[in-house]
Amino acid sequence: MHLDQPETRPEASECRPPRSVLFLCGRNSIRSPMAEALARHMLPHSVLVSSAGVREGERNPFVDAVLAEKALSLGDWQPRQLDELEEINFDLIVTLSPEAHHRALELTRSETFDVEYWPTFDPSVIEGTREQVLSAYREVRDSLVRRIADRFGLQEQEKGG
To answer: Which residue ranges traverse the bilayer (predicted)?
Structure first.
């Protein structure tokens, strides 16, 4: 099952990493922290990468499990809301849910940054065995790896340097 929407290839100028990226989703529990961990691994260390949610969320153990499969960890990271950020001073905000995209577009009325919408499936809606649930989370993880690699002109296995 393919869980994400088709996306066009970025222009060459879009492949250069911005200085800072914020991944934004509904609760900062699944999609945006997963994207943050993957981007920190894949992008150059000079790029500031963060994540937040529109609403309050809780850390999701399935995210930890599928990141650990790739030798990645969120460490002591905890979910946070967009309103908790001291400044919203990012070059790029990548929104991963409709609610997050709407909120980011509201912010562009008073702030200057680029907003990109990457519709990303919410694996928390999957019911079934632990393996079936993990499979859905793996698909989201792998989809985010592809999107990050495509957007920033990286090889999928490339590590930030």
So the answer is: none
